[in-house]
Structure formats: structure tokens, C-alpha cells
């Protein structure tokens, strides 16, 4: 029959039109630039060469940096997962109201710029900072200790930067664990410790694994924290790439280091896939239809025995406690847990908050703050560098938000609503900008933009930021669309609404809140983005993070505290608005 | 009154290799109340979505009042759909929900308001106009979904398990309501349910579906008293199915021999063609099994004896579960209206069972068991 074939052909065209912009974007501004960079590492003036790699492995310098990078990343990941677990656990069990409060602090920290947080630690750990002053007044030390520019300070900064990510990733899984299961275990005779270690903990493991790999991979690509808080010995691998590009313009060698970095990330993912399966990465749905882990027999048995032991030990310890505590409602978190979580939240939020009084003080960045002045705010607002940067960041952020929505939303529709082949592969492709270290994308883009004359242009920056923001838009929109009842569309059509009217009166109004929050996500990603902006902008066309970076690497001044305060308040407002939107959507 | 006839010709829908609806033909008369009945997964929703234009058939045609609408989009078909979960728009007030189809049809504002109020009257909920769907109870939402559907007077209304989420009492009440609206509007209705009682009480005809195909179509009486297959007999109410062999066929019935019995007995046909020697099932409904003390009842066509296993009283009916003396014969159930006073039989007692020839229906044994 002719008609159905026409419909089929129409459908194919519609699908192509929905998916093509995203594919095109990623091919042109992710695959091509990264490919170019990798090619540059093996093509010199005289054709194919391995010279760059020979140089890379000639001395132990670069491998040492790689080892340091891995060491810092590994320790950071361990600390983030271990301390993040109780935080995520508490958030997943408390009542709605306290959950909102706890989550607000985690989100605030999550969204506060890495730059702002790293800068805050510089001030906090400085010779005249809070910590030194506190230690002196307590009589623990007599003269200021140098707490900065060592492994410890880098670690503090890294954990502060990545703990929120770990918490949010684990929370996504924990929220989907059926709360009745540990209770069922209790009715079957399991004591609380056993119920936790044997039932709850194994179910939450996919979240732990996902958090682990997310934190590790992000940490490997970090440069802000080691550059600001570390000394020479804490140089990380992305810093080497920056040096190659900014100081010597040695594209080939930058490419070779990128290949090394990419190789490490690839190994990490391959190992993860081997052990746990990449499908658990998508987190949320995992515990419900959990597939048996790929760990083989003996390993699994050992793990099971370990959990049993942990359960028994916990119950022994619990039995030593006064009986009132022991028999409390299993859903109520203990005082110890609550105290721990609040202390952790304090530690990750305090530095930025302590910045606020300093920005109004006349005593520079020394603790305690003295006097009151708006001088630093006036300095910032009267400097064209800063005001230009703010406007630029707003422009690029809004542009990125709009473009990412425009490109990402149809793709999300396609992935959720249609039965295209190879969905998993498409999804992996779309999410690849998150997995490929940002620095590699940034250098590749810089190279390509330089040839296209797009360096320094807002448009180029919007394109670059859209590449890294669009996966988040697609993921959020997919989640939003999955929870959307398509029967509403069907109802609208059966009531006489044409496709456009259906979108206008039914689909978009209902998806509105979800679309708004994914726009905000894209906006915030761009607003806070430094890596791509690092190369692609400068001087009067710098973005706010770039301007911040240029200033902070030059000198540590109270003006930066003023900017930090502004950014902090701005992000706080943004989260507040996004949260309101989300709740309004959930109320339906 | 607006209402249309519906004709479906060899309609077929596949999902990959899986046949959700085998080529199916069906005629629905103008103003008829037809029910699609069948177990979950039997293709009822698939058929309904094809009719509504919410899914595209792989083969076959759909005609409304003899016009081919197979490839017209949902919004052009003048069909109303009431969805199982109601599908009320959560971001619109009740009023706006009901006025939505009128707005899509560019009905003038005052007229739209008048008709919306009228529809709310019809479903007896005029006071909820300004509320949002979430502020209504399940039963009320159900009625609003109905109001939104009748407000634009579609020529055919499709309902997909519209009462599935309601409790028993509310369901009974809504069944009456839907029947009343059907009487008042005279619209053609295609109704989907998996509840055989609901289908029996509401329909002009029932179309019983199984595994993506029509098993039997006819009036509720037809399906209940003259099932064509073991599946139909089983699906609509309880039944006793006895294995038998056809001895002979004549104009008003069959001579059959029950398995493990020598004496022939009589049974009526169900419209199928039987041949002598063919193995069949003889169906007797529980309420048609006549139970007595062993030995009585000579005027009955079939006779068996068995021991009483259990007695269960479920409100108006009392069920007797009986194990036949004949080896290999399945357990039987007999039902009679519950009477007050002590139970007339004791567990373990030997009882005689019989039935009238007109209550024994021959069913081909081809498929099913
Ligand atoms: N979109 C689809 N993709 C694949 N299979 C489907 C789809 N929709 C329905 N089916 C299958 O078709 C069969 C009939 O489904 P449906 O018509 O919904 O049954 P019913 O409404 O009678 O419960 C089911 O086995 C179902 O799994
Ligand atoms: Mg159905």
C-alpha cells in the first residue's frame, strides 16, 4: 500500500531532522577537533612521526606527573565516596523538609564555581587565614604554619570540589532503593547492622561505583585545584597540556599528552565495564532490575562473607549501646550520622561563606575581618574587565542554554519516544563529551577555532559550551520525557488537536518546568566553564571564569573575594529558582 | 443524534515479529454498544488505538460510515477516546479540559462555555469546573474524562478499561452512568474491559479476544450459553467441561457419550459443525447442575454421581465442589441460590448430579485443552 510507505518515509525524515543537529554538532566540534589533535601528535612537518611520544617517554618527568595525577585522583575518589556515602544515605532517608535543606547545601556547593571554592581555600589556609589564626589562638602552634601548596592542600581542595558530585550520584541510586527491603529483612530476623550490610549496602553499590568513576575521571582532568592550591610537586597532567599550548604552542606534544590522558581514561572505563558493566552508569534504574554482578564466584563469595562479618560486628557494637538507642525506629538517622553529615556540609560550604565578611572588610584577606567597606565591590564594578566579563558570561550562558535546548530536546524526544536502532550506542555517543576529558576538547577546539577565526568570538564559545552542556540537557530531558505520560498527547490528538497544537497546549506546558531546569543546567555549566574559555577567550572578551582565573593566578586580592561573593549569591538564587520550578512540576 | 457505523476489514498490527493483532474484521452498527473483552495482552488496546488513529495498521482498512479513514490522523476522525488513566491535562482546570476539544474545533467562546456547562451537568459535576484534576477523586476524574469526550459529540466513542482503577461500588455506579449516557446520546460505543461481568451487563454485543484475534463475537447470551470454544466457556463465568465423543448429529442436537460412561446422553450444538466420532467437550454451567441425594432425578439427560468435597457460600450463591466417582473426570462445581438454615448436605456425602439436555452444550475440542 502506498500510504503507509509515505508515512514511513515522512517518519524517517522527521527523525533525521530531529537527530541531525546534535550529531552534526558533536561531529564538527567534538570528534573533528579531538581527532585533529590526536592526529597532530603523530604528524609533524615531515609526515608521520613518533617523535612526540619518544619525548614523552624519554625522561621520567611526564610519567611522574601521570603517577602524581593518578595518586591524587585515587585518594580524592576514595575520600569522596567514603565520606559522601553517609551524606547521600542521610538525604535519602530523612523527611521531605529536612531533605530539601540538606540538598540545598549540597547543590549550592555543587554549583559554586570550582574557582571560587579553590580561591576560598587559598585564603582559608593562608598564613593569616582562619585555620592558622585558630591554631595559634588555641596554642597548638606559635607561629603561622605553611598549610598551602602541598599534597594536603590539593587534596582538601579536590575533595571539596568533587564531594557534591559523589553525593548526588550516589543519591540518585539510593533514592530508588525500596525502603521496605531492610524492614522486610528486620521482620525476617536481621538485626539493623546485618540488614544494612547485607541488604541495603549491596543494593547501593551501583551508586558507589558510578560515583567512584565519575569522581575519578573528573579528577584526572582537573587543573584548577592543583594550579591554585598545589606546589610544583602536585602538578597534574592537564596542567602540562596547558603549558604546551599557552607557552610553546606545541600542538604535537599537547596532542601526545592528550592521547596519554585519553588512554588512561579509556582503561578506567574498560576496567569498570569489565567489573560492573557500563549499564550501571545510568544509575537510577539499576537496583530494581539489577543484573548479577560480573564478579566471578570466589570473589563474590568473599565479598558476601565480608559483608556478613561487617554486619555481625556492627550488631555487636550496637548491642553495647544503651537499649533506648538500639531499638529506635530504623528509619531514623542516629545522632552520630547527623552530626557527621552536618560537619561535612559545613566543611564544604564554610570557605565560601567565610569569604563574604572578608569581601566587606578593610583588612585585606586577613582573618578576622575588620571594618566595613564597599570599596572592593566598587573596584570590580568600575573595572571594564570585570563588567565586560560578566556581560559576556551572561550572553554566552544564555546562548548556550538556548542552543543546547534547541539541539538536545528533539534528540531526547527521539531517544525516548521512538524505536530507533542502536539506542545505547547513540546515547554513549551523545554522552561522550562528559567522558572525554574537558581539556582535550578544549585544546582541540582551540586548534580548529584558530583556523576558522573563531577564537575570542562569543559564537565559537557558545558552540564549544553547547558541546559540553548538551549531554546534560539530553539526560535531563530524557528523564523528564520518561516520566511524561504520552497518553496525554494521544488524548489531545483524539480530541482534535493537530501535532503543533498538541505541543503548544499540552506537551510543552507540562514539560515546562523540566525544560526550564535543564536550560538552567546548561546555563550554569557554561557560566562556570573555564577550560574551553581558557584558550578561546582573553582580555576584553574573557568570560567571568577566565577573568577570575587571570586575576587569581596574578594576585590574591580582596576584589576577588567580592566577585566570589557575587557569584555565590547568584548561584544560590539560581538553585532556589530551579528548586521552586522542580517542586511546582512535582506538585502535579 | 450523531452516531456512525464502524467497519474494520482485515486489520493487522505487528511489532517486529510479534503479531499484536492478527488480520481482524469487525462491524459495529450505528448506536451499538460493543465490548472488546479479553485477557490482558490479547490486543484490545491495540485494536482500539488503531481505530482511534493513535497507531498505524500494517494491513487492512478502517471505514467510518463507509468512508475510508485508515490513513487519516487521529484529529480528523471525529472519534472520542476515554483513556484508562483518564489522561486529563494536569495543567488545565476541569473547565479548560472539557473545553479543549471545542477550542481545537474553533467553537465560539460563549457557545463553548455553554456546552462545557452542559457536559458537566450530564456527568453531574457542575460544581468542580474551576478545580484542577488532582483535586478530584478517581471517580470524579473518570466522569470528567467522559464529559470531555461527549462535549464535542463524536460520532464514535472508544473507552479503554475506563473503570479499571475504581473500586467495586463506584464501578457499578459508573456502569449505570455510562449506559444512561449511551441511551441519551445514542452514540456508537466501543468499550474495552477484561472484566466479564462488566461486559455482560453493559453490552449489546461482546467481542471476545484472545492472543490478538477474535475468539467469538455475539450477544452476551450467545457467548454465555453457546460458547464456540473452551476458551470462551472458561472466560465467561464458571463452567464444567466434560470430555465426550459425538455419537450422532440431528436437527435439534447431538447424541454424545461422556468419557468412561456407556449410556449416551443428549446435548445441544453451538453453531459449529460436528462429525460422528469426534472428541468434544460438553459444557454445563454450575447453576444448571441439578444436585440431589444419590439415586433421584430420572427426567434428566445426563447423570453422574460424586462425593461432596467442600461447600462455599459467597453471598447470594452457594457453591458445591464435587469429586465425580468416575475416574479421570475433573472436579465439578454446582451452584444454587443461598438458602438460610443449615446446609442440606454433609462433606463426604455421595450426591447425584444431573442436567437437562438443553443445558448441555457441545464444544469442539480442537483447540484449548
Ligand atoms: N509498542 C509496542 N511494542 C511492542 N509490543 C507491543 C506494543 N504495544 C503492545 N504490544 C504487545 O501487544 C500485545 C497486545 O497488547 P495490548 O493491545 O495492549 O493488550 P490489551 O490491551 O488487550 O491488554 C501485548 O502482548 C503487548 O506486549
Ligand atoms: Mg489494554
Descriptive overview:
The complex is a heterodimer of chains A (588) and B (369). With 588 residues, chain A is an all-alpha fold. Chain A contains 25 helices and 2 strands. Chain B is α+β, with helices and mostly antiparallel strands and 369 residues long. Chain B has 2 domains: 225 residues, Rossmann fold (3-Layer(aba) Sandwich); 109 residues, no CATH class. Helix content of chain B is 23%, strand content 35%. Chain B has 8 helices and 20 strands. In chain B, the strands form 4 sheets. A 6-stranded mixed β-sheet of chain B has the order 6-7-8-3-9-10, with helices on both faces. A 5-stranded antiparallel β-sheet of chain B has the order 13-12-11-14-20, with no helix packed on it. A 5-stranded antiparallel β-sheet of chain B has the order 15-19-16-17-18, with no helix packed on it. In chain B, helix 2 crosses helix 3. Chain B is elongated and about 75 Å long. The two termini of chain B are 47 Å apart. Chains A and B meet through helix 1, helix 21 and helix 22 of A and strand 6 and helix 2 of B. Magnesium ion binds next to helix 1 of chain B.
Amino acid at each position: 500500500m502506498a500510504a503507509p510507505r509515505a508515512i514511513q518515509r515522512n517518519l524517517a525524515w522527521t527523525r533525521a531532522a530531529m537527530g541531525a543537529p546534535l550529531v552534526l554538532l558533536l561531529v564538527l566540534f567534538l570528534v573533528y577537533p579531538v581527532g585533529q589533535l590526536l592526529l597532530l601528535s603523530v604528524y609533524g612537518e615531515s609526515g608521520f612521526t613518533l617523535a612526540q611520544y619518544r619525548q614523552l617517554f624519554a625522561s621520567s618527568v611526564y610519567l611522574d606527573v601521570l603517577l602524581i595525577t593518578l595518586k591524587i585522583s585515587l585518594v580524592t575518589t576514595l575520600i569522596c565516596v567514603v565520606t559522601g556515602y553517609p551524606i547521600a544515605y542521610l538525604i535519602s532517608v530523612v523527611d521531605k523538609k529536612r531533605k530539601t535543606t540538606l540538598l540545598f547545601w549540597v547543590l549550592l556547593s555543587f554549583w559554586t564555581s570550582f574557582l571560587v571554592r579553590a580561591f576560598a581555600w587559598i585564603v582559608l589556609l593562608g598564613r593569616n587565614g582562619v585555620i592558622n589564626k585558630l591554631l595559634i589562638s588555641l596554642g597548638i602552634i606559635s607561629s603561622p604554619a605553611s598549610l598551602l601548596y602541598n599534597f594536603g592542600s590539593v587534596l582538601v581542595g579536590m575533595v571539596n570540589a568533587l564531594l557534591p558530585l559523589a553525593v548526588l550520584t550516589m543519591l540518585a541510586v539510593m533514592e530508588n532503593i525500596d525502603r521496605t527491603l531492610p524492614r522486610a529483612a528486620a521482620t525476617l530476623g536481621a538485626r539493623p547492622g546485618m540488614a544494612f550490610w547485607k541488604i541495603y549496602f549491596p543494593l547501593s553499590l551501583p551508586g558507589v561505583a558510578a560515583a567512584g568513576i565519575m569522581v575519578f575521571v573528573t579528577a584526572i582532568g582537573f587543573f584548577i585545584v592543583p594550579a591554585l592550591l598545589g606546589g610544583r610537586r602536585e602538578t597534574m597532567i592537564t596542567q602540562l597540556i596547558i603549558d604546551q599550548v599557552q607557552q610553546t604552542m606545541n600542538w604535537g606534544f599537547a596532542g601526545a599528552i592528550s592521547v596519554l590522558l585519553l588512554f588512561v581514561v579509556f582503561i578506567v572505563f574498560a576496567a569498570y565495564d569489565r567489573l560492573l558493566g557500563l549499564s550501571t552508569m545510568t544509575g537510577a534504574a539499576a537496583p530494581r532490575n539489577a543484573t548479577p554482578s560480573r564478579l566471578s564466584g570466589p570473589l563474590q563469595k568473599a565479598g558476601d562473607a565480608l559483608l556478613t562479618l561487617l554486619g555481625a560486628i556492627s550488631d555487636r557494637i550496637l548491642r553495647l549501646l544503651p537499649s533506648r538507642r538500639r531499638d529506635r525506629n530504623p528509619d531514623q538517622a542516629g545522632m552520630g550520622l547527623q552530626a557527621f553529615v552536618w560537619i561535612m556540609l559545613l566543611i564544604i560550604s564554610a570557605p565560601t561563606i567565610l569569604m563574604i565578611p572578608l569581601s566587606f572588610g578593610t583588612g585585606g584577606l586577613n582573618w578576622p575581618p575588620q571594618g566595613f567597606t564597599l570599596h572592593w565591590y566598587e573596584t570590580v564594578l568600575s573595572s571594564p574587565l570585570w563588567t565586560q566579563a560578566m556581560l559576556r558570561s551572561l550572553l554566552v550562558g544564555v546562548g548556550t542554554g538556548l542552543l543546547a535546548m534547541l539541539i538536545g530536546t528533539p534528540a531526547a524526544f527521539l531517544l525516548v519516544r521512538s524505536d530507533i536502532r542502536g539506542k545505547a550506542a547513540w546515547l554513549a555517543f551523545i554522552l561522550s563529551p562528559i567522558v572525554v576529558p574537558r581539556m582535550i576538547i578544549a585544546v582541540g577546539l582551540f586548534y580548529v577555532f584558530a583556523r576558522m577565526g573563531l577564537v575570542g568570538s562569543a559564537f565559537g564559545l557558545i558552540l564549544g559550551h553547547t558541546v559540553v552542556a548538551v549531554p546534560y540537557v539530553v539526560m535531563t530531558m530524557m528523564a523528564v520525557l520518561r516520566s511524561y505520560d504520552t497518553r496525554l498527547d494521544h488524548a489531545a490528538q483524539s480530541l482534535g488537536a493537530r501535532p503543533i497544537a498538541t505541543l503548544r497546549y499540552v506537551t510543552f506546558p507540562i514539560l515546562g518546568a523540566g525544560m526550564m531546569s535543564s536550560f538552567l543546567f546548561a546555563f550554569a555549566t557554561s557560566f562556570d566553564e573555564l577550560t574551553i574559555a581558557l584558550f578561546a577567550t582573553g582580555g576584553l572578551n574573557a568570560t567571568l571564569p577566565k577573568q577570575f582565573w587571570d586575576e587569581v593566578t596574578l594576585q590574591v586580592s580582596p576584589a576577588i573575594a567580592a566577585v566570589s561573593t557575587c557569584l555565590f549569591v547568584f548561584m544560590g538564587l539560581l538553585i532556589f529558582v530551579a528548586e521552586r520550578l522542580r517542586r511546582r512540576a512535582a506538585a502535579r | 443524534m450523531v452516531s456512525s457505523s464502524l467497519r474494520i476489514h482485515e486489520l493487522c498490527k505487528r511489532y517486529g515479529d510479534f503479531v499484536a493483532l492478527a488480520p481482524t474484521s469487525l462491524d459495529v452498527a450505528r448506536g451499538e454498544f460493543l465490548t472488546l473483552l479479553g485477557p490482558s495482552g490479547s490486543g484490545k488496546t491495540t485494536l482500539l488505538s488503531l481505530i482511534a488513529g493513535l497507531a498505524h495498521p500494517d494491513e487492512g482498512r478502517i471505514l467510518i460510515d463507509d468512508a475510508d479513514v485508515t490513513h487519516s490522523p487521529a484529529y480528523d476522525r471525529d472519534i472520542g477516546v476515554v483513556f484508562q488513566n483518564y489522561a486529563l491535562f494536569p495543567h488545565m482546570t476541569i473547565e479548560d479540559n472539557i473545553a479543549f476539544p471545542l477550542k481545537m474545533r474553533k467553537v465560539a467562546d460563549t457557545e463553548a462555555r455553554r456546552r462545557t456547562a452542559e457536559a458537566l451537568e450530564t456527568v453531574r459535576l457542575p460544581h468542580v469546573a474551576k478545580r484542577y484534576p488532582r483535586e478530584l477523586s478517581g471517580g470524579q476524574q473518570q466522569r470528567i474524562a467522559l464529559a470531555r469526550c461527549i462535549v464535542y459529540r463524536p460520532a464514535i466513542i472508544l473507552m479503554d478499561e475506563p473503570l479499571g482503577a475504581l473500586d467495586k461500588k463506584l464501578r457499578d455506579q459508573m456502569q449505570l452512568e455510562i449506559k444512561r449516557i449511551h441511551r441519551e446520546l445514542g452514540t456508537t460505543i466501543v468499550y474495552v474491559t477484561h472484566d466479564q461481568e462488566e461486559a455482560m451487563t453493559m453490552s449489546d454485543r461482546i467481542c471476545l479476544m484472545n492472543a490478538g484475534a477474535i475468539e467469538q463475537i455475539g450477544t452476551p447470551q450467545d457467548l454465555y450459553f453457546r460458547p464456540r470454544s473452551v476458551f470462551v466457556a472458561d472466560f465467561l463465568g464458571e463452567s464444567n467441561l466434560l470430555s465426550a465423543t459425538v455419537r450422532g448429529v440431528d436437527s435439534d442436537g447431538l447424541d454424545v457419550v461422556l468419557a468412561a460412561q456407556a449410556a449416551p446422553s443428549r446435548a445441544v450444538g453451538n453453531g459449529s459443525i460436528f462429525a460422528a466420532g469426534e472428541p468434544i467437550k460438553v459444557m454445563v454451567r454450575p447453576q444448571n447442575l441439578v444436585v440431589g441425594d444419590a439415586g433421584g432425578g430420572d427426567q434428566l439427560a445426563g447423570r453422574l454421581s460424586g462425593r461432596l468435597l467442600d461447600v462455599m457460600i459467597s453471598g447470594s450463591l452457594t457453591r458445591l465442589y464435587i469429586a465425580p466417582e468416575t475416574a479421570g473426570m475433573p472436579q465439578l462445581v454446582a451452584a444454587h441460590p443461598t438458602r438460610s438454615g443449615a446446609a442440606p448436605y454433609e462433606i463426604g456425602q455421595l450426591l447425584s448430579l444431573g442436567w437437562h439436555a438443553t443445558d448441555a452444550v457441545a464444544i469442539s475440542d480442537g483447540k484449548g485443552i
